[in-house]
# Entry
Amino acid sequence: MKNKIGPLPRPIIFLNTVLLVAFSLPAFAFKVGLVLDKGGKDDKSFNSAAYQGALKAQKELGIELKYVEATDNNLLENMHRSFAKKDFDLIIGVGFAQADAVKKVAAQDLSEKFAIVDGEINAPNVKSLMFEEHEGSFVVGVLAAMASKTGSVGFIGGMDIPLIRRFEMGYRAGVLHQNPKAKIVTNYIGITGEAWNNPAKAKELALSQFNQGADVIFVAAGASGSGVFDATEEKKKLAIGVDSNQNWMKPGFILTSMLKRVDVAVYDTIKAAKEGKFTGGVERFGLKSTGIDYALDEHNQKLITPEMKKRAEEIKSQIITGKIKVPDFYKTKK
Amino acid sequence: MKRALLGFVVGMTVCLSLTWFAGENPFHVLSVLFKSAFGSWDDLALTLFYTTSLIFTGLSVSIAFHAGLFNIGAEGQLNIATVVTTGVGLFFTFWFPPTHVAVALIYSVASVLAGLLAGGFWGFLPGYFKVKRDAHEVILTMMLNFVAAGLAASFVTNNQNPNSQNPESSPVSPLMSWQPWDPLHKLAPDTPFNISFLFAVAAALILGVLLYKSRWGFEIRSTGLNEEAAQMNSIPAPKVKILAMCLAGLFAGGVALNEIFGAHMKYRLGFSPEYGFIGIAVALLARNHPWAILLSAFLFGALQKGAGDLDLETNAITRDFAKVMQAILILSVSSFSLWKGKKK
# Structure
C-alpha cells in the first residue's frame, strides 16, 4: 500500500532535463535593446553611428539586436521599460534626451543593465558613455588655424545647447593656441531639434561667414552639415566635418572630420557586457582611447600637409599627457 | 453609429491585411495593438494620457466645425496655453515661492486659468479676423501655429532649465504639482497619466449636453448649418462664430492641464506629438459629436502608443505604420458613415 507514488522513473527525468535544456538554449543569445532618438537610424550622423556599432556587434558577436526609434519623448520611458520587462541583457539609450527615462527605469530595475550615450547618470547598473568632444575640437581647431590663409575661421553649431558649446569652446582654444591673432566667427542654426536638420540655413550661415573673411568652417550640426559643405564647394573654401568621417562627402573641400566614435563605444560596451565585464559608472572617450580623433584618409591627404599632420599628432600627445589643458564648457559652467 | 462601426471593422481589416503583405502575422499585430492599449495598468494609463490630450484637441476642432469653421490651429492654441501656464507658474515660483500646499494649489489653478484664457485668445484672433475682415480661418490658424511655435521657442531660450540639455523650461515649484493628491496618478505612478483625464471626460460630456440641449448650442449649430438662415432668425451669427473659435482655443488649451501640473511641470519644446492635428482626425472620426470623441480619442491614443509597441514587437513594421492605420481608419469610417445608400 505504501510508496505507490515513488520517485519518477528515470527516463522521464532524463526527458525533462533534455526538454529543459532544449527550451532554454535559444534564450542564451545575448539580447541587446537599442533605443534610438527621433532622428532614427538613417540620420547619417549620431543615431546612425550608434546603430552601426550595434550592427557590427550583431555580426561579429552573434548577439540578438532589437532597435526601436522613438516616436515622441513621452514614449521613451515606456520603451526602456518594455525592454527591461522582456529581460534584455543590455539596453542602450542614444542621446541626452533619454537621460531622464534611463535614470528612472534603471533605478526601478536594478538587475537590468543600461548604457546611455551622451548622458551622465550615476547608478551601479548604468554605464554612461561620455565623449571628450572639446579635446578633438581643439585638435581640429589647430588644423583650421594652420590651413587658414586669411587668419579668420568659422564655427557653425546646430542646436544651441551646452554639448555644442563644448565643441565651440575647444575649437576656439585650439585655433587661438595655434594663432593667437586669429579671428573666429560663430553662428548657431537654431534652438530646436529642427536645427539638426536644416541644411538650407546652415548654407546661408556658411556663405555669410565666408563673406566675413573666414576660410575654414568647423560645423557641428548633424544632418545640417551638408549645407555647409555645399557652400564650401561653391566658394572653394574648406570645411571640417563632425561625428562620423565626412571627408568623402565633398573630397577636396573637407579639411578633416572630428570623429566621435559612438559606434566604437556602443560596440565595446556590448562586447564587455557579453563577456560579463559590464561595469556601471561613467566612461569617458577621449583622444587617449581614440574614441575622439580627427580623420585622415585618401579624400583629404592632399589638404593635410606633413607639417600639419606632425603638428596635430604633437598636440594630440600633449593633450593626452596633460601638457595642454583644453577648456571644458561643462566645467566652466558649474 | 452602426455604419461607423462597420467602417471601423473594414478599415481595421484593410490595415491588418497590409501587415500581412509586409510579412507579419495580422493576428499577432492585432494582439500587439490590443496589448499595447489594455495589456497592463501602465499600458492603459499611458494610452489614457494621450487620450486626455486628444479629447481636448478633438473637442476644440469639433466645436469649430459645429459653427462651420475649420480650426487647424489647435496645435498653436495648445502651445500658447501651455507656455502661458508654465510662464505664470514660473512667475509664482520665482517671485512668490509657495510655502504651503494650499497656496501652491491656488497658484496652479491660477496658472491653468491664465493658460486657458491664452488659448482662448489664440482662438479669438482668427475668429475675429474671419468675421470682421473675412480672412480665411484655415490660413490664419495655420499661420498662428507657427507664431505660437516661435513664441514657445523664445520662451524656452529665455527660461532654459539649467540642469538639462533638453530644450525645456525650468520646472515650476514641485509644491504646485497635482501628483501628490491625484488619485488617478496613484493608479499608475510610472506613467504621466493624471487627473486631467477626468476633466477632459467631463468637458466632453458637458459640451455634448450644451451643444444638443441648450439654446446656446442650437445657435452654434444653426450658424454652422446655414449662416444666413440663422441670421434671419435673429441669431447673431458673427458673434457666435467668434465665440466658437474662442471656445475652440480654450478647449485646446486644456492640454496644458495634462502636460504641466498633471505630469511634467515644465514646458518641453516639442512635447506634443501633434495633438492638434491628430485632433482633427479625432473629430472627423467622431463626426463631431463630443461623446463619440471620447471613443475616437481613445482609439487614436491607443494608436499613438501602439506605434512604439509595434516597432518593438514586430520585425517588419515601424513606427510610421501607425500613421498609415490612422489614415485608413479615417477614410473607411467617414466614407461608411457618410454613405447615403441608393435613392429609392
